[in-house]
Amino acid sequence: MSANQLQPKLIIHGGAGSSLKGKGRIEAVRHSLSSIVEEVYALLLTGAKASEAVVKGCQLLEDEPRFNAGTGSVLQSDGQIRMSAALMEGESQRFSGVINVSRVKNPINVAKVLQDADDRVLSDYGAAELLRELNLPVYNPLTDLRLQEWIEERKDNFQRDMAGVVAEESNSGRGTIGVVALDSQGCIAAATSTGGKGFERIGRVSDSAMPAGNYATSKAAVSCTGIGEDIIDECLAARIVVRVTDGLSLAEAMQRSFTEAKERQRDLGAIAIDATGAIVWGKTCEILIAAYHNGEHIGDTLDWTGDELTGFSK
User: Fold this and answer.
1) Could you tell me the sign of the dihedral formed by the alpha carbons of 98, 152, 231, 295, in that order?
2) Range of the domain at 146
3) DSSP track, 11-41
4) I need a surface site. Which of 78, 107, 158, 291 has the fewest CB within 10 A?
5) By C-alpha distance, which of 9, 11, 31, 4 is closest to 20?
């Protein structure tokens, strides 16, 4: 790495909710996260742009059936999978996304294509037409675990509010995946992808394809997870980034935003990186499933279940 290049930074998340139960499950999630962090960070070390790295990270997370995005996405109340994803590159400050897209392996790839389009956020019908134009292969992201989860819930007439955050856990919270990266040239990007809450009303739209849940400028980038409606009500990602732009440190912006969110009894989490390379995360729920590379080592937040609202890499 040359003298004028920065040390890349990276953080990813796989959802938020109540604690993962059992040492084996925690270690399985930790292994999945750390292996993805390792692969994406290696890409950053080759000089890849932040936008390229966050797309790659989302692809890997979408392909991991454990998480609720891409393969392994939860089913809506009618038994269909509808996924949403967004990409925002901080230097150009361009947002793109897809809402409630089906039959595609990696929704983040569609968001990536839309970065250079005039119309950069498409919903189900428009996204389906774009998939045909791109000649992408039809793909069924359904897994047996998610199908069984839906069948069991249907017996109770969908009394639960949402599906499990990871496929092994039947009642552990909110599933979304996200990646935030700072590259060696100092550019920041964020990407977020989700299968939704699970069991929700047909056509419900999550925060993941909105600036509320995924936002980046040249100052900072944020990806959110949790209850989408709570994230939208707080406009959380954009709020944090705007506060950094207005002069707060990323840690201060996260702390203030999460203090406000907790006062309003919101249920959410977020990961973030700023232009200085600071890596910060926050949560109002019990656990945030996240891992990072701070330029020296890989760490994660799986054991972070205390009362603190925000944390940072050391």
Assistant:
1) negative
2) 9-304
3) EEEEEEESPPPSHHHHHHHHHHHHHHHHHHH
4) 78
5) 31
Give how many domains the chain has, as a whole number.
1
pTM for the whole structure: 0.94
Which residues of the chain fall short of a pLDDT of 50?
A: 169-173
Distances (CA, A) of 81 to 160, 220, 271: 17, 32, 26
Q: Which of 71, 176, 225, 310 is catalytic?
A: 176
Residue 111, Cα to own-chain centre: how many angstroms? 13
Distance CA 175, CA 161 (A): 13
Residue 1 lies in a domain: no
**What pLDDT does 165 receive?**
53
Is 4 a member of any domain? no
217 DSSP 8-state letter:
-
Cα distance between residue 47 and residue 44, in whole Å: 5
pLDDT of residue 172: 45
pLDDT at residue number 158: 59
Q: Is residue 313 part of a domain?
A: no
> What residue spans of 226-302 are helical by DSSP H?
228-234, 236-245, 250-263
Rounded to 10 deg, the angle between the 23-45 and 50-62 helix axes is: 150
24: domain CATH number is: 3.60.20.30
In a domain, 310, yes or no: no
